[in-house]
Known about the structure:
This protein has helices at residues 2-19, 21-27, 111-115, and strands spanning 34-44, 47-51, 58-64, 68-81, 84-90, 101-107, 118-122, 126-133, 141-147, 157-163, 166-174, 180-182, 185-199, 204-208, 214-218, 224-226, 232-234, 241-248, 251-252, 258-273, 277-292, 299-300, 304-312, 317-325, 332-336. It is mainly beta. It folds into two domains: 2-163, Immunoglobulin-like (Sandwich); 166-336, Immunoglobulin-like. The strands form five sheets. Strands 1-5-4-3-6-9-10 form a seven-stranded mixed barrel. A hairpin with a 5-residue loop joins strand 14 and strand 15 (214-218). Helix 1 (2-19) crosses helix 2 (21-27). The protein is elongated.
Amino acid sequence: MRKSYLHILFAAVLLLAGCTKLEINDKRGESPISFRPVGRMMTKAILEGSVFPDDQTFVVGGYYNSSATYFEGLEASSVNVDGVTLWGTDPIMYWPLSGRLDFIAYSPANVAADTDATITVDPADGISATGYTNDGETDFMYAISTVNDCDAHPDAVPMTFEHALTQLVIKVKQAQEYTSEISGYSNIVHLTVDDLNLTGIYNSGNFDQSGSPQWTLTGSTSGSMGLIPTPVGLTYGEDPQMVARSLFIPQTLLSSAEINGHYTIHQTITLNGDYTGETTVEKSWQIPITVKLADYIATWQPGYKYIYELSFGMETIQVSARTSDWLPAGDEITIEED
């Protein structure tokens, strides 16, 4: 109830400020601070795009003349003002009469609770996160913006959020058509990816945004993450299926970092002889999967997407790996495993 009331109050104040901007500024200190966030290749639940979702919030602080805390640790949520979606804090904050304000924000607002991290914001050093434990789904982002003259402030402060994490995408497909039928003979082949796992990856660390943003890895790489909950059937000619998409801490990949698992080839051979009648033989065999990630891309960088496409054949797997921004782009590297 309180949040709804504040949204109504915030919208009313912004409408008044938009209609009578000079009058509000003349009253000095009654113009509310609002934000217009965008994502540099934005994501919510790893969804692509650059529009900041209306239902997503962020935590923001404002620092006066590069040092003094004007406000800190406030959650900003969206409000529609005359058809325009802006974000405002709870409680509403107002522009100072003069001076400079540095704004530092991180998103989502619940990132600390979801990852067991301690988030620290400092006007000199920016954002840091200690004890961060990746859950594969929470997209940790940060944004910094400066208004040098608060007396001539913008209607809304632009906040461009950067990704602190790496996005991993796994796709699978069948390499060739193996089914054949001629008179008196048919060979039906189906391929099934039984299990895919990711091992040898660090999932905990500390983030420091000051200077050049970087991660310090902690913990071990002993864990294993299942990438598919159930077996995946393949059909030749279909577009590659995306079977996994997760977020990870950026890192230089160890030789132990790999995708492993098994796939099964199911074959049904039917012979229809004039004298012997129809004979059907069914057989299947399982083939191990081992993809050494460092053989394709050495380092996962923050804000990039790494796509590994596994193309399954009767005896071998072809691996295609490419790096792109959070939105599709980038060059492709194709390597065939023996």
